[in-house]
Write a structure and sequence with these properties.
This protein is an all-beta fold and about 120 residues long. Helix content is about 0%, strand content about 50%. The protein has a single domain, classed as Jelly Rolls (Sandwich). It is built from no helices and eight strands.
Amino acid sequence: MEGGPADNAYGVVLRQQSSGREFYRFKISSDGYYGFDLRKSAEWEDIVPWTKSDVINTGKASNQIRVVCQGSTFSYEVNGVKLGECTDNTLASGMVGFIVEALSQGGVEVAFGNFTIRELPGK
């Protein structure tokens, strides 16, 4: 988080379809929450609703996000601590990217760095 209101969301987009309208996203916020959801048919489905975590650095502090997608299972961690995992088989593959969202007012500034994609061992 570089600047702007704490009422925000930022993270990674997973398995985005070529239309750009269907994807998963793992998101965190500058006020210490995380969530995992699915965008499909112009609707959002919460797979993991916004959940508070003391692991997430708040304010303008940096956070390290890691998501492992293995089949229909997604495990997610922030700052080296596994927060959980979930299962959904709606989207089997797709593109990856970033997401930044201002929830109540504009001006959110986020910087991403050191982005790595790799195949899991044994796959």
